[in-house]
Amino acid sequence: MSGTTDTIFALSSGSLPAGVAVLRISGPAAFPALMRLTGGRQPPPRKAALRRILDREEQLIDEALVLTFPAPHSFTGEDVVELQLHGSRAVVNAVYSQLAALPGFRLAEAGEFSRRAFENGRLDLVEAEGLAELIATETEMQRRLAVEQSFGRQSHLYEDWARRLTHARAMIEAELDFADEDDVPGSVGERVTADIAAVRTELEKHLESAKGGEIIRDGFKVAIVGPPNSGKSSLLNYLAQRDVAIVTDLAGTTRDVLHVDLDLEGYLVRVFDTAGIRESSDVIEQEGIRRARQLIDTADLVLYLEEIGSEPLQAPLSPHALRVGTKLDIHRRAPSYDIYLSTVTGEGVGSLRKAIVSRIQSAWDGSVAPMRGRQVALLQDTSLHLRSALDETELELRAEHLRGAATALGRITGQVDVEQLLNVIFSQFCIGK
């Protein structure tokens, strides 16, 4: 990214045209630019004021609500101005033109406002990543998990672990350096072992929630599989409430994997319809069946559909499978099915939805969870250092492993050695953030 001595500007609201366009300006010349745009009238900090926005010839561009946020009490930690303009492309482009003509001004790069917030101590990396997740959320549970990151709860957890490990290391080094002093308690190495073990237990439990965090962020994958004409495509269409898949009485109609995204009680559920599993000489259908079997291995839940009363499956099911008897409107219930349903009457579909949600809730209990691979990898690194510290009998080496653990935790929040990560992380943001 370019130097932070520039003053940057960008649209921070949605795409144009719109009812309102929020234009953000951040940097050392933000307030002088506002005075030029408004004829020298600057409102009090954090209080909205109606101002006329003028061009260099003092011709009216628009009337806008103006807000000012003096440093360091702003999102970026710099002087910030927000203009709430009418959301016309012509209006926004006219203001852009005025700002771009000022010395030291330029359009912001992707994620640059958030990067400046990080560099000025307004956000750490976990909070910045959580903010990106929050902007991208589509379901209620995605929002809840992103809020835990973007507003500091997850960072506080890591900071607490780092503080406790630093204290344990300090106590060990105190014993090493001042073993002959009366005011240094003896056997510190033994006394801090319980503290180190407690942190590792908490961290391991946190790591166990990573799969749940992945499910909430990326969606719970449900594969609908079964023999031809067992009602797979009909179930997909019923759940989606639209015609996603072609439904006919001909076996082999579905030849590829189709999917829809559903919001079930705030959870993102990705439902996949697959080709009917059977022996086939058709090359295209064989490929569809291969993909269906591949999906069974990666799905979080497999719904194995059979028409009630049909020949039962002989092959072993996935351990994540529910056996679903279909076409309940024309058959009586029969043993060996977990759920019975009819996509004609809708009977049993509610039970299926509840079963899916129950599986998700068993994977994520609502606690703070790491959402990104970077965080998981550094947490695993921390855990390995702690295990080595607990196994080590030499106090010097134990202290060194604790230093490594605290360093790994610091890299998660951005307190230690993360310069090479910054461009990658902040480039994922939109321009106005």
Automatic annotation (TrEMBL):
Required cofactor names: K(+)
Listed EC numbers: 3.6.-.-
Assembly with partners or alone: Homodimer. Heterotetramer of two MnmE and two MnmG subunits.
Subcellular location(s) of the protein: Cytoplasm
Pfam families named in the record: MMR_HSR1 (PF01926), MnmE_helical (PF12631), TrmE_N (PF10396)
Claim: Lipid metabolism is one of the keywords in the record: no
Principal cellular location given in the protein's record: cytoplasm
Protein name: tRNA modification GTPase MnmE
Record-level Gene Ontology MF annotations: GTP binding; GTPase activity; metal ion binding
Gene for this chain: mnmE
Keywords noted in UniProt: Cytoplasm, GTP-binding, Hydrolase, Magnesium, Metal-binding, Nucleotide-binding, Potassium, tRNA processing
Family statement drawn from the similarity comment of this UniProt entry: Belongs to the TRAFAC class TrmE-Era-EngA-EngB-Septin-like GTPase superfamily. TrmE GTPase family.
Top-rank lineage group of the source organism: Bacteria
